[in-house]
Design brief:
A: 83 residues; 2 strands; 12% strand; B: 289 residues; Rossmann fold; 11 helices; 8 strands; binds thiamine diphosphate; binds iron/sulfur cluster; binds magnesium ion; iron (chain A); transport (chain A); metal ion binding (chain A); Pyruvate synthase subunit PorD (chain A); 4Fe4S_Fe_S_CS (chain A)
């Protein structure tokens, strides 16, 4: 079938693009002190914190919103190092 | 509390700036609407960052046509679904402030007037961000943009923000609300109510933009919060013509606390800040905040 216009038939395939490479600061989440408020999950613009509070560094751009909005200071932003 | 879904319907890997408020806006809306939804978007940051061909961040059917006609396209999608008997599908249109209050106003007005069963969400970052921060009708008084620059001859935007939610309310549609990405519970409730409304629903969502407003990326939510806590942005809904404030700050902060951290307002002197404060006070008084 001929497509009129641009048709993308693979939902969610921006996942091919690992935006983690954009990051200069990396969030480190301490599950011990986390009070489960879900702020970090709700506000992450890149949907990269899951229900178990694991951060997906393949996509995390290091914006720092999660750390800024964490009421228990459980997320620390540390500078990335070049390898 | 806001329910956290097992699956996000806006995938990562999109090209939004680090800390982009528009992606938070859409992620939260789709959480509330669920998978049984068709989304339409006008040209703008949202469309550009989520659909860099041949990729898409959308996990649900999504259609982009042009800058000025998301209202018309969503009308068509809704009509086509209705004729097929698919009454249970949510139709949601997203438009930027430029795409909504300026160029898309006519097609949106028509869609509202015809009574389509759809939800329209204006994600308002208060300028044409995608093309490089030009002013729109939604740019607030005093803001410096590339087409209302501050300098010797100008203090920035010289007109107040167009009151789009009240223009929508004047259409007599059953649901109109304002919202902010910084108040997700309030916003998500409104998206759910809008979707449940039989007929057209309009949500005007305040969306801070790190790049266009000039504040550090981690403060996107903080800027949204300060707008509301200073009364610069008021959260309300109008259900079947009945107006109600949905969130009241405990004590309204001076507007300066919202303006000062943003580069677009940094040039403002005390006199102009006072003018903005008076404008905000008047608006709050009028709406009963
Ligand atoms: C008819 C037409 N005019 C101009 C443009 C160029 N254009 C693309 S996006 C955009 C600005 C969008 O601003 P807004 O709706 O506020 O969305 P934002 O990018 O801020 O999210 C402009 C001017 C276009 N695509 N089509
Ligand atoms: S730093 Fe930003 S992108 Fe990374 S997990 Fe936190 S909120 Fe998400
Ligand atoms: S914001 Fe902090 S306290 Fe809340 S869920 Fe995330 S890590 Fe835990
Ligand atoms: S310019 Fe603003 S709205 Fe556009 S992608 Fe960047 S942060 Fe998001
Ligand atoms: Mg805009």
């Amino acid at each position: 079938m001929v497509n009129i216009g641009c048709v993308i038939k693979t939902p969610g395939n921006t996942k091919n693009n690992k935006t983690g490479s954009w990051r200069t600061f990396k969030p480190i989440l301490d599950k011990e002190s986390c009070i489960d408020c879900d702020n970090c999950i709700l506000f992450c613009p890149d949907s990269c914190i899951n229900k178990q509070h694991d951060i997906d560094y393949d996509y995390c751009k290091g914006c720092g919103i999660c750390a800024y909005e964490c009421p228990s200071d459980s997320i620390e932003m540390i500078q990335e190092e070049s390898d | 509390m806001v329910d956290i879904p097992d699956k996000n319907l806006l995938a990562p890997g999109h090209r939004g700036c680090a800390g982009c408020g528009a992606s938070i806006a859409v992620k939260l809306a789709l959480n509330a609407l669920g998978e049984n939804t068709v989304a339409v978007s006008a040209t703008g940051c949202l469309e550009v960052m989520t659909t860099p061909y041949p990729e898409t961040a959308w996990e649900i059917p999504f259609i982009h046509v042009a800058f000025e006609n998301s209202g018309a396209v969503a009308s068509g999608v809704e009509s086509a679904l209705r004729i097929q008997g698919k009454d249970d599908v949510n139709v949601v249109a997203f438009g930027g402030d430029g795409g909504t209050v300026d160029i898309g106003l006519q097609s949106l007005s028509g869609a509202m007037e015809r009574g389509h069963n759809m939800t329209y969400i204006c994600y308002d970052n208060e300028a044409y961000m995608n093309t490089g921060i030009q002013r729109s009708g939604a740019t607030p008084f005093g803001a410096s943009t590339t087409t209302s620059p501050s300098g010797v001859a100008s203090f920035g935007e010289d007109k107040p923000k167009k009151n789009m939610p009240m223009i929508m309310a004047a259409h007599g549609i059953p649901y109109v609300a304002t919202a902010s990405i910084a108040y997700p519970e309030d916003y998500v409730n409104k998206v759910k109510k809008a979707a449940e409304t039989k007929g057209p629903a309009y949500i005007h969502l305040h969306q801070p933009c790190t790049t266009g407003w000039g504040f550090p990326s981690e403060r996107t939510i903080e800027m949204g919060r300060l707008a509301v806590e200073t009364g610069s942005w008021i959260l309300y809904e109008i259900v079947d013509g009945k107006f109600e404030i949905t969130y009241r700050p405990e004590e309204r902060k001076p507007v300066k606390e919202y303006l000062a951290p943003q580069k677009r307002f940094r040039h403002l002197d005390d006199e102009l800040i006072e003018k903005i404060q008076k404008y905000v006070d008047a608006e709050c008084k009028e709406l009963g905040l």
